[in-house]
Design brief:
Two copies of one chain form a homodimer. With 424 residues, chain A is of the alpha/beta class. Chain A is built from 16 helices and 17 strands. Chain A has helices at residues 10-13, 20-31, 46-59, 77-84, 93-105, 112-117, 153-168, 188-194, 198-201, 227-245, 257-268, 282-288, 305-312, 316-322, 327-341, 388-409, and strands at residues 2-8, 35-42, 62-66, 89-91, 119-121, 125-127, 136-141, 144-149, 176-184, 205-212, 215-223, 249-252, 272-276, 296-302, 345-351, 366-373, 376-383.
Chain lengths: 424, 424
């Protein structure tokens, strides 16, 4: 059962927006065991769209189209879909009534564009839109189904989950399973070597590797006669992989390093503060993307020596003697943040993100970091390759992983219950 | 002259990575006047790849393929390209020698995978890789050209600019021009209404609108008998648009709000500090993505009342009387940051990013912000819709725009030349 994705809109061809819909759909469909064989993007061009839709329907069991259902005249999808599938557009009274209800609830009125959006191919089944106003629809051609959804990601995603997946599930071959392990701290070749022979030890399991920034993901994939068997197979192989990779594995699936660290802090009842320099706020930002006020107290970004001394109490002697990019300053920044914010742990980073700022003995990419915790202060350093953004991200990863290891090394005490502020 | 883009790799179909190559190529090709009519992604599947390549070459003047040139056996592009274009693979001695030189320079040796990458279709012209080791190549079929490049974005981009563009330029129809104006502060409908009649006043000019987060971009596009004429047409229309939109326009082209604000600060010789709460480091991060140590002194993220008082000197009376999310606290945070960091200007944000933290009189999305400058302190507020990330981004935009307006309202004095620290 093959699936083709069709993304409609000239803005995709001209690179104005990323085709995030196709990426998301590809991920979703793969995860339920369906086989996406091609993704195509075409513009708002009647002839090209019609020919493409015709070919995709001839070659695939499912076609999932997004975009071109809007209110303006360059939105051609419904018209072309009707033409290709041998039917015609007609006003769908139910669809219009539903749109009217939604618009009126939002204090808006039905305009000509909305009426256009309620013109749907005769014989199509409506796919309700739980987020926006315009419906999607599905048309059948013999055994094949063509789904048409709006291009607005939030509307498309809800419609896909609520109305497309149930119609495709009978065809999904749930005979596979996958676990993705996230690792940090070693390159792809070392990770791959550690897993040498794992596929042979677990017949039916395939490994895949993906490099995402400073991380290496290990995909453990398996296929069997049914999903329960595939799952058992993959879980055994993933256990094997975990024990071979040890502490390189920081999490799996939807985990990210900040989420894993936040979980470790919460389970210990530890509050955190952050003292940044070359990362410029990136680390604080990573923690505060999701609610954090139950463990995150605050952060400083100190670009000048004066600010490092004033806010964090870094001694002027240390700054003079070792320079602001040094292990000594990183340690004093972390200890100072712990004091200033009154947090249980604090992390600090100081480095040269580049492109300028290097000195004869301190190259671009040099980063010192520290973690101050109830039992002491850990310092570490590295020279990271890459451009400014890459050095900043690598530094952020390095200090987060250091904190993860500090948490793992310290026995969990009973969580304290500190009252922290709002702004979470 | 039509162009088709072909992205090769199963990871694209399964949604593991975004197709950033196609987006980037679409943007580049459009900007030089070439017409991208379709973008297709296929997996590492010999039959599908061959059929797709054959069809795209039959229908288009140019095909630009990326990916599948790697060292492993699932990288099939060169082999399939040779087959479709009626030739065969052979070891290219020059290509291998070039690869050997590069690898040895990096302290690496030539392995079997590299030898595979030096097997190129007989008759192909090599496209040198100035970033990585594996070359690309181009094959001709009558008047048509098929380009094959690596999928690694940095390698592909350099190869495209250095070797593909020069070969396509004779076909690029440079009869169009576009200016993109960036606006902030009004919705799409207000921006569009302000420009009513502009197309009629400038025949040959087309307007387009794009919403990117809290911003509305206005694309002013024109076509004429040659590019110089198109440019004149578009520049006149853009001037008209700028005068209608007034201070809603903050920049154009590659400008972003942080870059525009940084430019305004530099031209005034003003240093900046940032006091964040609900934005959690996002604003500092925006400024420090690019080198900033010539104007950026530092930032604080203060989640607790205690930290607001200790680091920024916000008075406990104000916190008690007005709550931490209030105009009074925002003003004291900005003034405190200006004092603490000794900067010329400071901005501050305090709000409720959600999803929790709302009170009966303070909803999720409520944000107060302030800009403290040599002439006083400006405060402002709004309730932003959306989820946590959207509220944080909207708040960041709002305060950056406030600072932009403060800069514009203050006469430029002679730039001071303060010595700021490293870490830039």
């Amino acid at each position: 059962m093959t699936v083709a994705l069709l993304s409609i809109g000239t803005e995709l061809l001209q690179g104005e927006i990323a085709n995030s819909n196709a990426q998301w759909l590809g991920e979703q469909l793969t995860s339920i065991g369906l086989h996406v064989v091609r993704i195509e993007s075409v513009g708002d061009d009647r002839a090209v769209l019609a020919a493409t839709l015709r070919r995709l329907l001839a070659e695939n069991h499912f076609v999932i189209a997004t975009g071109g259902l809007g209110p303006t005249t360059d939105d051609l999808t419904a018209e072309v879909a009707a033409e290709v599938l041998g039917t015609q557009l007609a006003l769908d009274d139910d669809a219009l009534a539903t749109m009217r209800r939604k618009l009126e609830k939002a204090g808006r009125i039905v305009r000509a564009g909305h009426v256009k959006q309620a013109h749907l191919p005769i014989g199509a089944e409506i796919l309700p839109n739980s987020v926006g106003s315009a419906p999607g629809f599905v048309l059948a051609q013999e055994e094949r189904l063509a789904f048409f959804m709006p291009g607005v990601p939030t509307e498309m995603r809800a419609m896909f989950e609520q109305h497309v997946v149930p119609r495709m599930m009978p065809s999904a071959k749930n005979d596979s399973f996958r676990i993705v392990l996230h690792t940090y701290g070693a390159g792809e070749s070392i990770v791959a070597e550690s897993l040498d022979g794992l596929e042979a030890a677990h017949p039916g399991v395939l490994l895949g590797f993906r490099i995402t920034g400073p991380e290496v993901d290990v995909k453990v994939m398996g296929r069997a006669s049914n999903q329960a068997d595939a799952r058992r197979l993959v879980e055994a192989a993933a256990d094997d992989a975990r024990s071979r990779l040890g502490s390189l594995v920081y999490g799996e699936g939807a985990d990210s390093l900040p989420l894993v660290v936040a979980r470790a802090l919460r389970s210990r009842g530890w509050s955190l503060s952050v003292a940044e320099s070359c990362t410029g706020g990136l680390i604080a930002r990573e923690f505060t993307r999701t609610p954090a006020s139950d463990y995150f107290v605050g952060a400083t970004v100190t670009y000048t020596n004066a600010a490092k001394s004033k806010l964090l109490g870094v001694s002027e002697d240390t700054l003079r003697g070792h320079g602001s990019v040094s292990a000594e300053v990183a340690a004093e920044m972390a200890e100072g943040a712990r004091r200033t914010f009154g947090s249980d742990v604090a992390l600090a980073v100081t480095g040269i993100a580049g492109p300028t700022g290097a000195t004869p003995d301190k190259p671009v990419g040099l980063v010192h970091w520290a973690v101050a915790h109830p039992g002491g202060t850990v310092v570490n350093m590295r020279v990271f390759p890459g451009n400014r953004i890459q050095v900043q991200q690598a530094a952020s990863h390095a200090v987060l992983d250091e904190l993860r290891r500090v948490c793992a090394a310290v026995r969990v005490s009973r969580p304290s219950n500190r009252g922290l502020g709002p702004n979470g």
